[in-house]
From TrEMBL:
GO terms for cellular component: mitochondrial matrix. CDD domains: TrpRS_core (cd00806). It is found in: Mitochondrion matrix. One of its GO terms (biological process) is mitochondrial tryptophanyl-tRNA aminoacylation. Its main location: mitochondrion. This is Tryptophan--tRNA ligase, mitochondrial. GO terms for molecular function: ATP binding; tryptophan-tRNA ligase activity. Belongs to the class-I aminoacyl-tRNA synthetase family. It catalyses: tRNA(Trp) + L-tryptophan + ATP = L-tryptophyl-tRNA(Trp) + AMP + diphosphate + H(+). InterPro entries: aa-tRNA-synth_I_CS, aa-tRNA-synth_Ic, Rossmann-like_a/b/a_fold, Trp-tRNA-ligase, Trp-tRNA-ligase_bac-type, Trp-tRNA_synthetase. PROSITE patterns: AA_TRNA_LIGASE_I. It holds the Pfam family tRNA-synt_1b.
Amino acid sequence: MKCNMKSLFRFIHTSNSHRILFKAGKATGTMSRPKGQVFSGIQPTGVPHLGNYLGALENWVALQDEYSTVMYSIVDLHSITQPQDPQILRDNILDMAASLLACGIDPTRSILFQQSQVAEHAELAWILGCLTSMPRLRHLPQWKMKSMEKNEGSVGLYTYPVLQAADILLYKSTHVPVGEDQIQHLELAQDLARIFNNQYGEFFPEPRALLSVTRKVKSLRDPSSKMSKSDPQKLSTVFLNDTPDDIALKIRRAVTDLISEVTYEPESRPGVSNLVSMHAAVSGQSVEEVILLAKGMDTGQYKNVVAEAVVEKLQPIRLEIQRLRADRGHLESLLAKGAEKARGLAVPVMTEVRKLVGFYYGN
């Protein structure tokens, strides 16, 4: 499955607010198309939902044709900051691998691997953790939010951002696709690159945030919140492996309002506006084109049109996920090969890090 790169990417060097705009691989100024090393990770929480796909995974697919080296990691070390059933975790890792491949992540154009299969992630995280202060981590938003939810948190949850920084720096990544809520964690990676370089000599590049103009998909049952896997309302979230009947039911039950006309007014009509945004995203049309198409329809009729468009978009992905999941050995082999490629990049970096830190004798 191929996706065209239509997004406008913004590269933000958050340490000095330097902003450069690029569009579909062509620079808007005099600079040429960026080249570099891209890294991003996703937790193995099972099959992604429509919001994950439209908000991140479509862009991941496009980035494979934009950069010289692109790495995507299923970050299972991060996932165990919350209690996990081992068998469910194993299944979730393979579900995520199958989903990424079905969405268009191509092991011949990028490196897809399982984080825990590359031990250098944990080793670099320890070294970087020794350069990080506790107050620095305490002020990061994820720790504040999750520790308040549980009234306390594990050491792993507390140091989670340091492992994120290690994930990025281990491959000397230059660009990291992130959501706006992750910018502060990327700033920690930038800070740690500077701290390490100041102490041991220039070594790590400072990674830049790669923000795309993403489509935010809201919950079908509560359009004031994002679509989420953890939403207890089963009809609120469309998953990539939902059947056509599942999708039709969920969209038919989507919360709208008492006005029958289809309009796009996110503030006053968030429910129907969410359907319009979703329809535009899966069909490749603009919001204006979608509204014109819906002219004369009431919201009930329009929901059927949206459901058909979502089914058309997701049906090939669903069938490919099914095909891939039927061959567990193939998925495990792909992840093993990806880990071998990742180690090929990680080992030389860690060898140099060990020398710089003083773990090796001689030259």
